[in-house]
Amino acid sequence: MHKVGKDIGVIWNIAMRPLLFGTIGTAFDLDLTRKDELFKGTAIVLIGLAMRVATAYFATSGSALSFKERLFVAFAWIPKATVQAALCSIPLTMILKSNKPEMISWGNQIVFTSVLSVLISAPIGVLAYNVFRIVS
What we know:
Layout (H helix, E strand, L loop, with lengths): L2 H25 L7 H25 L7 H10 L5 H6 L1 H10 L5 H32 L1
Helix pairs in contact: 2-3, 2-6, 3-6, 5-6
């Protein structure tokens, strides 16, 4: 790996990633989440992941890739939800500044769904990577 890449990796692992997810943790309040929101958020994330995997698999059809390679590409394209985590508190912040208390529950739902996205997609991505590494 290039020296600059190593340096950036060290900065990301030691400082930036903990700051990012620590900031999300302060915006996330599980007490404000209802069971129906948990179900709805989980369904949104799982349906989105399924569509993304299927799309990535079919997007590689017609290529010279083998079945296992196409499957690997499909699962490698599962997002790790870093962008969702970085941006999820922005709508809630905008809602809080807009003085529209009726929309606060929507902002909390966005934060909750984004956190669910991280909690669901990151382990699936790591598991898929390890499975493909063992199988190959």
